[in-house]
Structure formats: C-alpha cells, structure tokens
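Box 4.2: Ligand-aware structure prediction
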Amino acid sequence: MPEDALAANVWCATVLTLFPEMFPGPLGFSLAGKALEMGVWRLETVDIRAFARDKHRSVDAAPAGGGAGMVLRPDVLAAAIDDVRARETLLRPRRPLICLSPRGAPLRQKRVRALRSEPGVVLICGRFEGIDERLLQTRGVEEVSLGDFVLSGGEPAALALLDAVVRMLPGVTGNPGALEEESFEQGLLEYPHYTKPGEWEGMVTPPVLLSGNHAQIRAWRKARSEEITQRRRPDLWRRYVAGTEENE
Ligand code: SAH
C-alpha cells in the first residue's frame, strides 16, 4: 500500500490478481474514475505471479486427491499477502482481507457500508478451481461471494465490490441523499422511477409524481417499494416485516 495514501487517510484498495491489467477497468470511468483521479481513493494491484519462486514462475498446481483443474498455491499467495501486510504495519486497524469466492457470504449492502468505514480493503482474486484451504485459514481470509453463480475469476467480483464501496465514499456520489433512498438501504427494493416525457408510448407518469405534494409522493413511493419487495423478494420482505435489518 502506498505510504502517502496511508498517511493521507485515503481509502485504499489493494487487489491481488494474476491479471493486474484488468484494473481499474470500469472503475476508471465516471464517478469512481473521477474520484480515483482526484485521490479520493487509491487502487494498488499486486501481481501474484511476481511472488512465484520456481523457474517456471508457477502459481498453481494440481489438486491433491485428483480432479479437474488447478489450485492456487498457498506459498505463493502467502508471500504476496505478507508483502502487502508488511507495507501497512503503521495502519490500524488493518484492512480486512477478503477473497472473492462463490463459497463466501453473499455480499450485501450492510457489509459494503462497513467496508466504507475501514481504511480500505485487501482483495484476493481466485482463478482456476480456487485457493488452497490452508492459505485461507492461516491468513484469516474472509470469503465473500457476489451471488450463487460461478465466474471464471475473482476479478469481476472484485471490481463489483469496489464499485459498491467507492460510490459510498464521501465526495464520490454527487448527491449523497440519493444513497439513502436506494434499494436495500431501508430494507426494501427501490420504487419505480419516471422522467420526461410525461406520456410515452401510451403510458403516463403516475399523476401523484407530478402533483408537487411531497408527502403524497413519499407515501406513494413507500407503498410501491413495499409492493415490489413483497412480490420479488419474499426473503427481504420477511425480514422487513419482522423489523430486522435486511442485511443481517
Ligand atoms: N471451483 C470453485 C469455483 C472457482 S471459480 C467452486 O466450485 O466453488 C474461480 C474463481 O472465480 C474463484 O476462486 C473466485 O475467486 C471467483 N469466483 C467465481 N464465482 C464467484 C462468485 N460468485 N463470487 C465471487 N467470486 C467468484
């Protein structure tokens, strides 16, 4: 992690990957890209292969017990992680160490909010069949999943996680009020949006939204949010009705 970013208290992401060229990728555009350029957050990539020690610079090996594919070696990854940690000794608390993995806890907005309050995050992008279990245990790695599907590598998941956190950093999203109204923030999915033109393909904007009556608009939006959540996400709805937070 760059020392100056540490000193400046800038939210700093370090990504361990076999494909550093994939970063910042989409995060170099729009709000996240502008914020990156302005130094609101920092992004460091670490090429896992740089820590390979044998003459072939190999990072993976066949799975013990047989089976398809290859597994990322614990010794190579550990060397990469330990190097990152050695460069952040002054940082308290240490940044969470997260491996993107379909076996992890599904990423939810609550975790995103918590990560925003950390000094940053260290992400490990898996490839092949995954990572040697001993590495996950010895280095205290938290496993986080993007959802119940399988990607070919952790990089798109890392980009998605970073996008979700960075847009919540102070000064990144133009209108911070917009963040509070969004899906999941109140335990509900968001209400539907309408814009100009008022009539389009025979469909009109709901008149209440043009009424200028803010109390009525708020009530209409809340009712739509509840309706949509109940219909599309019975799991969220149950938690909402029970009064527990959606992301627990
Ligand atoms: N054999 C593994 C899948 C490996 S996919 C299994 O069955 O669980 C290769 C890599 O892609 C993983 O190590 C992980 O880093 C990443 N990946 C795949 N799906 C993901 C998901 N849903 N969320 C986050 N990362 C994922």
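In the box above, the bound molecule is S-adenosyl-L-homocysteine. Residues 77 and 133 are 12 Å apart (CA to CA).
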